[in-house]
Inverse folding.
């Protein structure tokens, strides 16, 4: 057979087409990975697209192009050309620089094209969301978790009334409200309501480790050796912090009931006990029955009935200068119809400030009546400036209510200090005069209380004149006399109302009265002694 000259060319072309179409002899480009770094990107943030493309099991380096279709038109990008890293992975950093509306958000559709040397192309698509800056500012929440070492006393329980020499249980629960584990130590103080808040006993509680969110419950015990009102203070120390709680309770005197004897014997003399550690909290052991006296049939306490309601009136803040004194008023209003008995003001304060309340206790406060108490504060000269809490409880036999006054200690000018004191005393005088007017309407004798009020007004007038003349020494002296007259006035006011009053006056007044009486008695004794000696000498001479 004879072949023409065109046959080899036709054969070669057919062979080439056969080889080209034969399965397995040619591989089209394949995109086996197209991923987005962040499914959500903020406006202006660079988001990277990663691409892997193969052809015949070998990675090509074709001409890669990419473009994006988005729902919001007129968006511009940093670039649209894929780059290649050392692992032959193609990546395209895309940054949306501008939308037609800067407050818009959009969906970014990415279509990647992988083209081989023959011009054959593989396509794949990916997408991510572009969020505008306004959306970011309103939706972004910064979450920060820091280690905290907080804690608090969650439960504090004790009997509010107990008989002398009877053991009492004080139950306390501490809660670790922080996020770390720490060790805590409990301490309890019990003391008297006097000028120095004398501590009668210290007790040490548990020292243990509490995990975050954990609770620790413990019981401390105390046996009161004196009767009256006592305060209690629980302090929990943990991780260089403290949590505390205050309370008070009443100790009734112990006595034995003798059959047939209507009047109980007087209580034993008070014994002040102290000292000792340990959670048991016993000073010494006295086994005595717990006898609670009950009111006799027909007594006033048994006959009390009606509505019980009490309100308190007092200033929110008072000012005091180191080395000076100040007076705050407290008005107890019995708004009910039931008489309130044993109305006692129990203050607590620390920080180098002495505190005194007059009158100490009013035996009976009838319904729809009020009583005025004066709280005197004396700050030492070295007390630091700051705000000190003055907490108090007005306790009665039927109802109790607490209050709080901020005592601001600061070194202000002499003018400001004296002016505040003058205004404060003037306000107290007005309140006392209002009470006197009410008593006059009831026909009560107000002679004594009016006398003390007039004395307070006179000395306050002298203080105002001295203050106007810049004579600060005389001003202080007159204000001190005014304070003493006001104390006497509130006591006389309580007596004028017909209320039984238990009064503990200022120690200096008692000392002055006692000193005058001692001098008078000594003078009389000396006179009588000299007179007797003179008579004896005359008689001897006559004989």
């Amino acid at each position: 057979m004879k072949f023409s000259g065109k046959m080899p060319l036709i054969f070669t072309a057919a062979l080439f087409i056969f080889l080209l179409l034969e399965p397995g002899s040619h591989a089209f480009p394949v995109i086996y990975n197209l991923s987005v770094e962040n499914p959500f990107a903020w406006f202006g943030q660079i988001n990277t697209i990663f691409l892997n493309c193969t052809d015949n099991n070998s990675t090509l380096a074709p001409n890669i192009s990419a473009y994006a279709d988005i729902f919001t038109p007129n968006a511009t990008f940093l670039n649209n050309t894929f780059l290649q890293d050392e692992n032959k992975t193609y990546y395209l950093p895309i940054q949306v620089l501008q939308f037609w509306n800067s407050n818009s958000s959009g969906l970014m559709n990415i279509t990647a094209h992988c083209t081989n040397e023959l011009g054959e192309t593989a396509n794949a698509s990916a997408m991510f969301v572009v969020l505008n800056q306004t959306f970011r500012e309103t939706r972004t929440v910064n979450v920060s978790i820091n280690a905290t070492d907080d804690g608090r006393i969650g439960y504090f329980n004790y009997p509010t009334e107990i008989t002398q020499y009877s053991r009492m249980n004080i139950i306390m629960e501490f809660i670790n409200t922080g996020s770390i584990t720490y060790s805590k130590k409990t301490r309890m103080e019990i003391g008297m309501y006097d000028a120095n808040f004398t501590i009668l006993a210290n007790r040490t509680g548990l020292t243990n480790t509490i995990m975050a969110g954990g609770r620790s419950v413990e019981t401390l015990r105390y046996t009161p050796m004196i009767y009256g009102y006592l305060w209690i203070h629980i302090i929990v120390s943990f991780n260089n912090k403290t949590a505390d709680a205050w309370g008070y309770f009443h100790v009734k005197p112990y006595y034995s009931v003798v059959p047939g004897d209507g009047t109980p014997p007087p209580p034993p003399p008070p014994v002040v006990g102290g000292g000792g550690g340990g959670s048991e909290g016993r000073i010494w052991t006295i086994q005595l029955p717990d006898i609670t006296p009950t009111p006799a049939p027909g007594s006033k306490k048994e006959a009390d009935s009606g509505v019980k309601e009490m309100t308190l009136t007092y200033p929110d803040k008072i000012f005091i200068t180191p080395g000076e004194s100040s007076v705050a008023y407290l008005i107890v209003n019995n708004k009910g119809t039931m008489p309130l008995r044993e109305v006692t003001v129990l203050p607590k304060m620390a920080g180098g400030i002495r505190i005194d309340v007059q009158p100490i206790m009013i035996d009976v406060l009838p319904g729809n009546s009020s009583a005025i108490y004066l709280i005197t504060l004396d700050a030492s000269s070295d007390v630091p400036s700051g705000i000190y809490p003055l907490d108090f409880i007005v306790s009665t036999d039927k109802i109790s209510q607490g209050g709080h006054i901020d005592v601001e200690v600061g070194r202000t000018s002499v003018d400001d200090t004296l002016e505040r004191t003058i205004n404060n005393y003037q306000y107290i005088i007005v309140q006392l005069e209002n009470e006197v007017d009410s008593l006059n309407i009831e026909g009560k004798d107000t002679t004594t209380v009016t006398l003390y009020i007039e004395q307070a007004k006179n000395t306050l007038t002298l203080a105002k004149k001295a203050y106007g003349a810049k004579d600060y020494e005389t001003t202080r002296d007159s204000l001190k006399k005014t304070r003493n007259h006001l104390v006497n006035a509130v006591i006389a006011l309580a007596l004028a109302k017909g209320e039984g009053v238990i009064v503990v006056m200022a120690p200096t007044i008692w000392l002055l009265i006692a000193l005058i009486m001692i001098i008078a008695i000594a003078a009389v004794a000396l006179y009588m002694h000299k007179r007797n000696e003179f008579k004896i000498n005359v008689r001897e001479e006559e004989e």
The chain has a mean pLDDT of 73. Residues 507-542 form the longest helix (36 residues). The chain has three domains: 21-139, 152-254+273-283, 308-505. The chain is about 25% helix and 35% strand.
